[in-house]
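Supplementary material to the annual report.
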Amino acid sequence: MQNNRSTLFFKNKPMIIGNYSTVGSKEGHGNFSKYFHCVLDDDKFGEKTFEKAERKILEHTLNHAVKGANLTMDDINVLVCGDLLNQIISSTFAARKFGVPYLGLYGACSTMTEGLTLSAMLVDGKYVKNVLCGTGTHFSSAERQYRNPLELGNQRPQTSQWTITGAGASVISSEGVGHYIVSATIGKVVDYDVKDVNNMGAAMAPAAMDTLITHFKNTNTKPEDYDLILTGDLGKLGSEILIDLMENKGYNLRENYCDCGHMVYSDTQKTHQGGSGAGCSASVFNSYVLAKLTDGSYKRVLFCATGALLSTLSSQQGDSIPGICHAVEIIRNEKVKKWR
Amino acid sequence: MDNKERNLRYNKYVESKVPKTKEFPTLIYAFVVGGVICMLGQGITDLFLYIWPTMSLDEANAWMLIILIVLASFLTAIGVFDMIGAFAGAGTIVPITGFSNSITSPAMEFKKEGIIFGLCVKMFSVAGPVIVNGVAISVIIGIIYLFI
Amino acid sequence: MALMYLKVFLVGGFICMLGQILIIKTNITSARILVLFVCIGAVLEAFDIYDPIVAFAGAGAVVPIVGFGRSLAKGAIEGVKQKGVIGALTGGLTATSGGIAAAVISAYLFALIFSSKTKKY
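Predicted assembly:
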């Protein structure tokens, strides 16, 4: 069943030479507050609408990731970017400002690993030297596109997650000093017929399981071989489901598995199942995970951002929620001294 | 394995994993907040009848509803209503305040897309079904009443 | 007087609690609850069940959205009594026009002045 083709091995070791993360104030009060590069007080970032704010957050993050890599925008060969808004306007409008060759992605909340995989392919194949990859989301713009008006006085269901206000970006390059991207598994769209739009974690967990198992098989590894296995935004419930699913298949995830969405908010922040959104895995990966790789706490990380590929139309027409998950394996480079 | 069977089993399993709302407290919150809103309404009606003793009960009730509607609309506008709603649930949705909130909140939300195509078009995006169904059922009842 | 307020509190609170039970048991959205309760109110009024509840509990039965459905049905029935067929069409909205107009105009004005803010919870 599982074919070997879906896992890519990068022989030339593309590196993550620059990274940056920006989050809103709620995320800034969460568990990773000291790792984020920039915490905004004003979640409108001085803009008039939430969509414009999301765009500006993304621009800010991309800009600083490039600066952090000691490059300028002119050195970037390709920008690989995506977000959650209709027609991925935040990324497109950010790309318009930079004037850099641009590939727009839509992978829902899995955009960060989709982008990292593509960037690593471009760099590893020696097509280009520097690729900038990023994504971002905004709670309020996602809420108004996918759910209810912000001021509607309803209760959020227990299984719901909180879309993160935040963005993360990485610069992937063949030159410089950075942690290595050694392999990536491109996921399949997996649908277990979950229809509850307020329970994305359950819809995405089977996709994460599929990709994880494929990756373990193709790379001949076991969960214990990694210091950290990190999923994107399954949330508390979704990550418990994933642990159960993997246990059924004979893999033990209890030791070194974490979920960005589950961890990013503290328990007192009343987000129910934790964070979600493309910005969730992007901001956590580009802050906490890379920092921990740099200080040596982790040596080998498997990062699998998960996405729920639904639209408001598809769910209103009674379709179930397909999930996707891409996995990227990152290995520590001891030469990386300073975490920016 | 058969996908349909697998999906059914998975959905059943997910259902068993879903955390249950702590039901009892939310019922009490809804009860108390809803009851207090109704008492506030009764107070307004009684006040109207006290000030204008000639006023009919129906007219006083109409004034009371209008005042509650405007009050809920104002609380929505200043961003307080969604916090009360998150606490009280149906306690604020079921009274007329919820109706008012569901008209004001999309109107505010979509103002940025323009007054006509944003604010005015989206105003009834939540409360529209209430008016549509309410009017439809009232017409049906009226027509049935015509024949009996 | 105090007894009346107790009745208002209990009946009003009870109706809201029914809504909350629906939310918990069925994960129903707030728009559906409003639709359901309006229809229930209209049907109860058509069968002459709701008027005694209003007489008993006053605002406790008027303030919940069920009362809105009751006004719609009551208006339609009275319209039929007074004007015949056309009353079935005009009655419901006539009886509730005050509430709808107040909701529309206050929503319009407040939306022009205020903008929505990010949720805290």
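The mean pLDDT of chain B is 92.
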